[in-house]
Amino acid sequence: MNLENTLVQMRKGILEYCILHIISRGEVYASDMLDELTAAKMIVVEGTLYPLLTRLKNAGLLEYKWVESKSGPPRKYYKLTEEGDTFLKGLSDTWEDLVRSTQMIKTKSNS
Amino acid sequence: MNLENTLVQMRKGILEYCILHIISRGEVYASDMLDELTAAKMIVVEGTLYPLLTRLKNAGLLEYKWVESKSGPPRKYYKLTEEGDTFLKGLSDTWEDLVRSTQMIKTKSNS
DNA sequence: ATCCAGTACTTGGCCATACATAGTACTTTC
DNA sequence: GAAAGTACTATGTATGGCCAAGTACTGGAT
Questions:
Q1: CB A50 within 8 Å of CB A33
Q2: B53 touches strand C (CB under 7 A)
Q3: Searching chain A, which residue's CA lies closest to the CA of residue B38?
Q4: Of B63, B106, B54, which Cα lies nearest the Cα of B82?
Q5: What pTM value is reported for the model?
Q6: Which A residues between 22 and 61 have a beta carbon under 7 A from any strand C atom?
Q7: Among A15, A94, B26, B95, which is most buried by a count of CB atoms within 10 Å?
């Protein structure tokens, strides 16, 4: 029972939300996302991100196209499908509710 | 890949935070917590709450005392240990950081 | 007194997902 | 052509919420 472990648990599900958000703003590939997540202090490793992207793609929320790169292997540029866009909207509501709930619990004084 | 499932994942870790918060405000027993969590729309079932309480107690963050009840079996009234209090403070920071991160990602405009 | 409903708590198995770690494949540079 | 860097893949582990069934105690109905 340590903070690190709890943080990992807290991240579950939230990551999915963050990634859909990043992609919704324009086409990006995995390293772009890693950079941004790191900048936002949502420390994430490759082995977490790639499987998640595959999962989202298989679920029909994402699609990608290969783009040649001058500095290495080709890259998968992702964007949201229409379904992904809808899903993200639902997810946003869910997340906002959750944050509101914790605030409600936090600020309530005892009876 | 549905909203319901993602919500479950999002709840991981957050629940622990909410429960410690509720207990930090004064001695309560499980049904009190369930009521409050339900009121805050953090729908939770017995089979989730009780094991969590046991885990927190075994980790030394909680302690309880039995109190007789006039309308049923005796109740376990929980309160935070000193260690639990410290842990909750750390958890609060972690949580605030996470919320900030998601907001950062959400409001950032694309380059 | 006996049975039933309500309350409080317990237990065991299932499943999704983040993480660690190692591995593949391609490109550029020396 | 060997080494370093980039992009992506695959496998096994652990955590924790959820479901469902079960125990134990109380008080009221028959």
A1: no
A2: yes
A3: A101
A4: B63
A5: 0.88
A6: 43-48, 51-52, 55
A7: B95
Query: How many Å separate Cα B63 from the centre of its chain?
Result: 15
Tokens of A40: 């936002």
Across the interface, of B18, B36, B90, the residue whose CB is closest to A3 is B90
List chain B residues with CB under 8 Å of A8. 13
User: How far apart are the two ends of chain B, measured CA to CA in Å?
Assistant: 30
Tokens 């410290």 — which residue? B86
Q: Which two tokens stand for residue A51?
A: 């499987």
Q: B23 in helix, strand or coil?
A: helix
Q: Reduced to 3 DSSP states, what percent helix, strand and coil does chain B have, rounded to the nearest 5?
A: 60, 10, 25
Q: What is the pLDDT of residues A21-73, one digit of tens each?
A: 999 999 999 999 998 998 888 878 888 999 999 999 999 999 999 988 877 78
Burial class for B83, CB neighbours closer than 10 Å (0-12, 13-18, 19+): middle
Tokens of residue B86, six digits: 């410290």
- Predicted interface score ipTM higher than 0.90: no
- Whether CB of B26 is under 7 Å from strand D: the answer is no
Rounded-to-integer distance, Cα B23 and Cα B20, Å? 5
Domains of chain A (ranges; CATH) run 3-96 (1.10.10.10)
Read off the amino acid at residue A88. Answer: L
Average pLDDT (B8-12) is 91
| Helix, strand or coil, per DSSP, at residue A1 | coil
